Amino acid sequence: MGASGKKTILITGCRRGIGRDAALTLARRGHRVIATTHTSAAAEGLARTAASEELPLEAFKLDVTDAGDRRRALGRGVDVLVNNAALGESGSLAEIDLKRVRRAFDVNLFSPLELTQLVLAEMLQRDCGRVIFISSLAGRITMPFMAPYTMTKFAMENGAETLRRELLRLGSAVNIVLVEPGAYRTGFNQEMLEKKYQWMDYCSYFYPIIGKIRSGEKRYFRIMEKRSTDSIVRQVVRAVEAQHPRMRYAAPWWQALGVRIMRMTGK
Ligand SMILES: NC(=O)c1ccc[n+]([C@@H]2O[C@H](COP(=O)([O-])OP(=O)(O)OC[C@H]3O[C@@H](n4cnc5c(N)ncnc54)[C@H](OP(=O)(O)O)[C@@H]3O)[C@@H](O)[C@H]2O)c1
User: Fold this and answer.
1) Contact at 8 Å (CB) between 63 and 40?
2) CA of 126 to the centre of ligand 1 (A)
3) 133 with 178: CB under 8 angstroms?
4) What is the mean pLDDT of the chain?
5) Cα dist from 257 to 146, 215, 230, 250, whole Å
6) Which of 72, 129, 147, 223 has its CA 20 to 30 A from that of 114?
7) Which ligand 1 atom is at minimum distance from the Cα of 88?
8) Span 24-46, pLDDT tens digits
9) 66 Cβ partners below 8 Å, 6+ apart?
10) pTM of the model
11) How far is the CA of 224 from the centre of ligand 1 (A)?
12) Domains of the chain (ranges plus CATH)?
């Protein structure tokens, strides 16, 4: 970390949405941001935007599932790793091809853990640093037809909290933090919800009620989704900059409160 409190922050999955908005916001706050993307084309687009504002942001391709790409995070003095990249997957566990669920776990959990282990080794050597996992409020509750995705975030919640406690036992200054977004209109949810209709045809157990499921989830997300990512980006900034970070940062506040009440009442 620079003497000015400015940090070197590597973020995955910055093509759009929360990752991109957090990367640009953190760079505008003077941090050195390494914004990585799934593809090289996306990195070039982001680099151009950053250059037009003269921001301290470099961008390159880092497919989190690619071991060679992951090694590109090494030797850069990363103070904060933000595991943001994810893919959505949906459908009932009664019938989904489990290859899809494995793929979701690979992108959303195992690959970020591989990247974390690499970067953590450097952080532990310096005895400073922070790993932020972008989880989800949906990783604290259950939602029908979303388990192929939400299970990955449930596992992330448990893993991150456990890792934090383990590092505390080492007396390490390296911290682990969870950021939990509620519903934001980035395109992620629509793509996730639509995926199941690629294969939920007349063979599906749920075929007779597909129309009802589809209109119900459309209505739900139309009401719940925030158009601007500002509130969750503010939480990412807090998670990066807090001297003594909390375990969890969530937004929007009313969805976080709703989830807390649902958990307390066992709903
Ligand atoms: N939006 C919400 O309502 C919401 C709610 C709760 C949690 N979240 C979480 O917030 C984070 C950001 O989501 P978002 O809403 O901003 O959606 P998003 O724009 O789709 O962000 C996900 C990013 O991950 C990237 N990605 C996917 N596979 C990758 C891979 N193998 N390697 C590297 N990058 C990869 C995507 O790039 P490509 O598109 O180029 O593949 C995309 O830029 C995710 O962890 C998501 O689970 C979102």
Assistant:
1) no
2) 30
3) yes
4) 97
5) 21, 26, 18, 9
6) 147
7) 47
8) 999 999 999 999 999 999 999 99
9) none
10) 0.97
11) 18
12) 8-254 (3.40.50.720)
For residue 122, which amino acid is it? Answer: E
Token pair belonging to 3:
């003497």
Decide if 149 is catalytic.
Answer: yes
Is the pLDDT assigned to residue 156 strictly greater than 90? yes
- Supply φ then ψ for residue 19, to 5 degrees: -60, -50
What is the amino acid identity at position 47?
A
Name the one residue in this structure whose structure tokens are 């690619």.
66
Token couple for 53: 């504002």
CB 235 within 8 A of CB 229: no
**Top-confidence residue, 1 or 185:** 185
Place of tokens 């900059």: 241
